[in-house]
Specification:
Number of strands: 21
Number of helices: 19
Shape: globular
Strand order of the largest sheet: 1-20-19-15-14-9-8
């Protein structure tokens, strides 16, 4: 890959990181170092990713937790494997049951939006199939940080304090008490540099490690979750947990200018990034800082998102297939709608027929793209007392309209925002990439891939480049360092441009590329968070 390793004019002046023996890139330095320590103990990239992911539940609880979901793309021995560890809605829930509790939509917080968590199962399944070290060894760093504590980093403290201020006003009923006991034990959010610890979190991680996650789904932890939901009138049960297994899935891809871009298939939204790239494939993209380039990127993403939001749900419930959505015929149909002016997107008709991301690589050629999340920061606000298990709120994305593709049903998986990405060329791994952050994720994926392939930027410059984000209709938000003359030109084409002063909504990404000739790894990490690369 011919990448420009010189300074990029809009970048932070940081350069890519290079290493030979191994690399872990994620949003927290302590978590990246935990993964590297596992590599140095004889673990492989998959072991390192599990160690990093488990540590992230401790050192970045504002974005993920033990009670979240996960997806992974794993490159081992020349083959790419996909893992979907998102969970379904409880078997006892229904549209009528939610409406009977007085809701016209699935609420954002509380017990109702909680679906079966997949994170512990992801760790156990990745370890079972591809790991070299036992889970008891791999989870040691996370357990140690939970028991002994760690000082908060700056961006982490910012989001923690923001969540506390919000939750203090809205979490006033008994089911939320454990959130404050766990994450605000002094009656406030911890400050930058202040040490936070959670003994309950450590005990839970130890139990998961010793039982290969069985305690979470059929044992003592499952009993505690079941009892809490029964006490407070929720739907999730021990039966739901016991019946759950993560799924190995066939990754989906499009070929973009000679490179294969890979994503997890629905129920994840990775297909949105692929649909956008498929549309863009038909254009001759020449310049990066051009109004024509940005206009086409934005219009393609709007069209892809409108289709994704209409059709993506549990794959067994979808009315169209991923292949139909990724067909050249459909891409051409959607591409033809892009003109000189900004459009208001509507779904097409295909032809019939809150989150952490990490990347890891080792000297054997193994690589993994891994993402896990609680959604919207801390998730549902529900923490199982004494365990540190903060539960996600993925069910919030279900519709209560029975005619909607993503309508709530018992045992159904919802549209899911978290997506890992992977890049290959001519059957060889280039490497893992990802950009976390709700509906920014497919937009970040497309921008990072174009920065890499079309504009030949190195991993760090590809991440540092200023981003745009489509919100709805013709509304586009850009970062403060986005070129002003391009923003003005886009506005003249009908785009409603706003400058966002807080960069938190533009995603936080990581990249590791591998040179197939030398095995040298080149990594980039995110300046929009406490990002770090640990390597050797």
């Amino acid at each position: 890959m011919n990448l420009d390793y010189l300074n990029y004019p809009y970048a932070s002046q940081r350069m890519a990181t290079f290493a030979k023996n191994g690399m872990v890139a994620t949003s927290q330095p302590l978590a990246a170092q935990a993964g590297l320590d596992i590599l140095k103990k004889g673990g492989n990239a998959i072991d390192a990713a599990i160690a990093t992911a488990a540590t992230l539940t401790v050192v970045e609880p504002t974005s993920n937790g033990i009670g979240g979901d996960a997806f992974a793309l794993v490159w081992v021995k020349g083959e790419l494997h996909g893992l979907n560890a998102s969970g379904p809605a409880p078997k006892s829930i229904s549209i009528d049951a939610v409406k009977a509790k007085g809701h016209e939509e699935v609420p954002t917080f509380g017990l109702l939006p909680v679906t079966v968590p997949g994170v512990p199962s992801a760790w156990a399944e990745l370890s079972r199939r591809f790991g070299k070290l036992p889970l008891t060894e791999v989870l040691k760093p996370a357990i140690q940080y939970a028991e002994e504590g760690y000082p908060l980093s700056p961006v982490l403290a910012k989001y923690w304090k923001g969540a506390y201020k919000k939750y203090k006003e809205i979490f006033t009923t008994p089911e939320y008490k454990s959130w404050f006991d766990t994450f605000a034990p002094e009656g406030r959010a911890p400050e930058i540099g202040e040490v936070w610890r959670s003994e309950g979190h450590a005990n839970t991680l130890r139990s998961i490690a010793e039982t290969n996650a069985e305690s979470f789904y059929t044992g003592e932890l499952a009993d505690k979750i079941d009892a809490f939901f029964k006490e407070h009138g929720g739907f999730l049960s021990k039966e739901d947990l016991a019946d759950y297994k993560p799924e190995w899935v066939q990754p989906i891809s499009v070929n973009y200018r000679g490179y294969d871009v890979w994503e997890i298939p629905p129920n994840g939204q990775g297909i949105v990034a692929l649909m956008a790239l498929n549309i863009l494939n038909g254009f001759d993209i020449k310049e990066k800082e051009s109004v024509e380039t940005y206009h086409k990127q934005i219009e393609a993403m709007k069209l892809a998102f409108s289709d994704g939001k209409k059709y993506v749900t549990d794959p067994e419930k979808m009315s169209v297939t991923a292949a139909q959505l990724l067909s050249e015929e459909f891409a051409a149909q959607r591409r033809s709608l892009i003109g000189e002016e900004a459009l208001t997107p509507e779904p097409g008709t295909p032809p019939r027929g809150g989150t952490v991301y990490l990347a890891a690589a080792d000297s054997e050629g193994n690589m993994i793209s891994y993402i896990q999340s609680n959604y919207m920061g801390f998730g549902s606000g529900i923490v199982i007392p004494g365990t540190g298990i903060a539960l996600q709120n993925r069910g919030h994305d279900f519709s209560l309209d029975p005619a909607h593709e993503n309508a709530l049903e018992p045992g159904k998986k919802t549209y899911h925002t978290i997506i890992p990405g992977f890049l290959t060329k001519d059957g060889e791994a280039v490497g893992p990439f990802g950009v976390m952050g709700g509906y920014m994720q497919p937009q970040g994926h497309a921008q990072v891939i174009m920065n890499t392939i079309d504009f030949h930027l190195n991993p760090q410059a590809a991440l540092d480049s200023p981003r745009w984000q489509w919100i709805e209709g013709k509304k586009i938000v850009v970062e403060p360092n986005f070129p002003t003359h391009v923003a003005q030109a886009l506005a003249r084409r009908g785009h409603q441009i706003q400058v966002a002063l807080d960069g938190g909504s533009f995603g936080r990404g990581q990249i590791i590329w591998r040179d197939p000739r030398t095995g040298v790894l080149a990594g980039g990490t995110e300046a929009r968070t406490d990002g770090s690369i640990a390597s050797w």
